[in-house]
Design brief:
This protein has 130 residues and is mostly helical. The protein has five helices and no strands. The longest helix has 28 residues.
Length: 130
């Protein structure tokens, strides 16, 4: 549970930082859609680094159930943050949010959430690091 929360916080911190960069720098000079597409690889890299760090730092054993549990906790917290914090702040309902998105953005978001889920399972554990 703790590893999942730490992993979520690392991914969330990176996500908010990259979102700010996307909105303030890239989207102003280029299109919003291009900014979203360019953000995806950096979010995936931050997810990989965050998963590796959380698994190594909190010494999560390389058992598939435990590693996927870390991913499920992070995914659950990410969805709660999206629906309980981000959507009300933006003043959108869930239906309005989905209607405002294009299919490419929705597909990319679902794919990114899938990577958030499985990345702790896919990271290698370094037993001799300690």
């Amino acid at each position: 549970m703790k590893a999942g929360a730490v992993y979520f916080l690392v991914a969330l911190g990176a996500g908010f930082t990259l979102e700010y960069i996307r909105l303030e720098l890239v989207a102003l000079h280029f299109s919003e859609r291009l900014a979203e597409i360019l953000e995806i690889p950096t979010v995936l890299l931050a997810t990989m680094i965050g998963a590796r760090w959380a698994v190594d730092r909190l010494t999560v054993p390389p058992l598939p159930g435990l590693r996927l549990g870390v991913g499920f906790v992070a995914l659950g917290l990410a969805l709660i943050a999206q629906f309980m914090v981000v959507l009300p702040i933006s003043g959108l309902s869930y239906a309005e949010y989905l209607a405002s998105q294009n299919p490419t953005s929705i597909s990319a978001s679902i794919g990114t959430l899938g990577v958030l889920l499985v990345m702790p399972f896919l990271t290698a554990y370094r037993w001799d690091a300690r």
